[in-house]
Amino acid sequence: MYPLEPEHAFRIAKEAGFDGVEIMVTNEATTQDPVALNEMAERYGLPILSIHAPVLLLTHFVWGRDPRVKLAKTAELAKAVGAGSVVVHPPFRWQASYALEFLSIVRELSQEHGVEIAVENMFPWRAAGRNVKAYAPGWDPRAMDCDAVTLDFSHAALSGTDSMTLANDLGDRLRHVHLCDGSGAIGEGQIFDEHLLPGRGREPVAEVLRMLADRGWDGSIVAEVNTRKAKTEAERLEMLRETVAYAREHVAVDAAAEHGSPLRRVIDAIVPGRQS
């Protein structure tokens, strides 16, 4: 829902039929306030299931400039609002000292605060016709020694990575999903992070969701879609309802129940569409 305020996002998430929300910490004070967030979660009957750390360029000064402190405060906030998961991006390459300790910091803070910190898959950046290494130790968490990973379909598309291959390679380390879609890789005409509605791109989104349900996966599915093209509130609501319907169709709740797994949770993300 960014840049709309959390109150707006809770309301429209309720109307669209989501089960809960993910909060991205931004410059907006309410996203940093556990008392205000808990009040809204109770009022709208939507639990906060995950917190996205302030790791974007637009949140560079939120909670200071020390990335370790920012991640620690995110974990503290998650615990305070009852969220079991924290989403974090790999460090930028120019955050050299943080990058060297990143994986040990993630594991240490996860154990200290009792929350799952899931490292998100990213993608190469493009400049002057060439791919640029923007993240360290890299954009692909498959090569990282971390216990939990977030799979973002739009990021997978931009990196030229098949989402099904990525999900299978991650195995039990895949703990969180950002539900969206993408139409192609950087260098194939794409230059920005699309976050299309699921089913409107080229990623095997439906197949991955069915695979996860069939194996009894119990993580959270967060709708992280770009709704900025919506000209009215009604159009935005329709886009979100379409996303919910797509997810519920393909997580195969009935099949999952046969495996004795819990009902899949589909949740709405309060995050930027282009840069998330």
Largest sheet: number of strands, sense, barrel closure: 8 strands, parallel, barrel
Beginning-to-end CA distance, first to last residue: 12 Å
* Poorly predicted tracts of residues: 255-264, 268-276
Give the number of DSSP strands. Answer: 10
Question: What is the arithmetic mean of pLDDT?
Answer: 90
Organism: Agromyces tropicus
Domain Xylose isomerase-like TIM barrel: 10-242
Pfam families: AP_endonuc_2
InterPro entries: IolE/XylAMocC-like (IPR050312), Xyl_isomerase-like_sf (IPR036237), Xyl_isomerase-like_TIM-brl (IPR013022)
Question: How is the secondary structure organized here?
Answer:
Blueprint: H1 6-16, E1 21-24, H2 34-44, E2 48-52, H3 67-81, E3 85-88, H4 96-113, E4 116-120, E5 125-127, E6 130-132, E7 149-152, H5 153-159, H6 163-170, E8 174-179, H7 205-214, E9 220-223, H8 233-250, H9 253-258, E10 265-270
Parallel strand pairs: 1-2, 1-10, 2-3, 3-4, 4-7, 7-8, 8-9, 9-10
Antiparallel strand pairs: 5-6
Helix pairs in contact: 1-2, 1-8, 2-3, 3-4
